[in-house]
């Protein structure tokens, strides 16, 4: 693999067996055994070259510099001119690995959880990178507290009115004039679940109501509740209720 990294590039090894990897990042050369779970990071603007001695299996995630700067300004509360992601040839970080694997799982299942979930994961990933692999690693701040009752009402009313739409994390955060990261943290600290989990639960609850009170087809109900298809509704309906929409309707 050879590229001039215009975005921050993360590579997570998925190889079941360690393999020899030659890497050059920004004129620095490194050779090592790269095992499953190992992570390499090439900052934006760096020339990246990678060569394996066997078939390589890895997950590559690219993050725009502008996005990382926005997260740094809002979540870490520093000026964007201080954002500097550091190159890493072979690092281990369970949190970064977990988020990257969750993104991979969502990709493999065709995005069944939704945009809100992916946006939440990318914000969390950016914060972990800033805290562990940047010049800011000792400058991070915590996000404490909860949303006020009025703020919660604003958000939950918006979600209820837009369940049929593709609800974006940016829209919810902007509603309260908060950063996406701070909104996600405060929302979870307020009601105990992440925004995407709350939205899924509300969609399933509305589907349950429509199944019992209308003669709409299951496909129509799926679309009215923000699911993309009959099977999409079925997947999450079974997860939350333990039964199919059809079985629930005739219960």
Brief sketch in words of this structure:
With 251 residues, this protein is of the alpha+beta class. The protein has helices spanning 65-76, 94-108, 115-132, 149-161, 169-175, 180-191, 195-213, 218-224, 230-241, 245-250, and strands spanning 2-4, 8-13, 19-25, 28-34, 39-42, 47-52, 58-63, 88-91.
Spans where pLDDT lies below 50 across 5 or more residues? none
Count of individual helical segments: 10
> For the report, how would you describe the main beta sheet?
4 strands, antiparallel
In the sheet with the most strands, the strands line up as 1-6-3-4
Structural class: alpha+beta
Helix content: 40-55%
The whole-angstrom Rg is 21 Å
For the record, give the distance between the C-alpha atoms at the N and C termini, rounded to a whole number: 56 Å
Secondary-structure element order, N to C = EEEEEEEHEHHHHHHHHH
Instruction: Please state roughly what percent of the residues sit in beta strands, choosing from under 5%, 5-15%, 15-25%, 25-35%, 35-45% or over 45%.
Output: 15-25%
Stated plainly, the CATH topology of the largest domain is called Jelly Rolls
Q: Assembly state here?
A: single chain
The shape, in one word, is globular
Q: What is the name of the CATH architecture of the largest domain? A: Sandwich
């Amino acid at each position: 693999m050879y590229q001039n990294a215009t975005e921050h590039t993360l590579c997570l090894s998925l190889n079941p067996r360690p393999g020899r990897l030659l890497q050059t990042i920004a004129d620095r050369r490194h050779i090592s055994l790269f095992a499953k779970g190992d992570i390499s990071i090439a900052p934006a603007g760096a020339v990246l070259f990678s060569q394996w001695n066997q078939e390589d299996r890895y997950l590559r995630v690219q993050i725009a510099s502008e996005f990382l700067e926005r997260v740094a300004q809002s979540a870490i509360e520093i000026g964007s001119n201080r954002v500097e992601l550091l190159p890493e040839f072979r690092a281990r970080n369970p949190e970064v690995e977990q988020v990257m694997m969750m993104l991979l799982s969502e990709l493999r299942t065709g995005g069944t959880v939704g945009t809100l979930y992916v946006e939440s994961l990318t914000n969390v990933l950016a914060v972990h990178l800033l805290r562990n692999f940047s010049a800011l690693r000792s400058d991070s701040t915590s996000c404490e507290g909860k949303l006020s009752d009025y703020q919660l009402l604003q958000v939950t009313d918006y979600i209820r009115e837009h369940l049929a739409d593709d609800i974006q994390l940016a829209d919810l955060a902007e509603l309260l004039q908060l950063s996406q990261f701070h909104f996600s943290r405060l929302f979870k600290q307020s009601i105990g679940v992440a925004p995407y989990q709350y939205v899924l639960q509300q969609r399933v609850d509305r589907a349950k109501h429509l199944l019992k009170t209308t003669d709409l087809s299951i496909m129509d109900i799926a679309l009215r509740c923000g699911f993309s298809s009959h099977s999409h509704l079925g997947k999450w309906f079974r997860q939350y209720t333990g039964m199919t929409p059809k079985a629930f309707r005739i219960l």
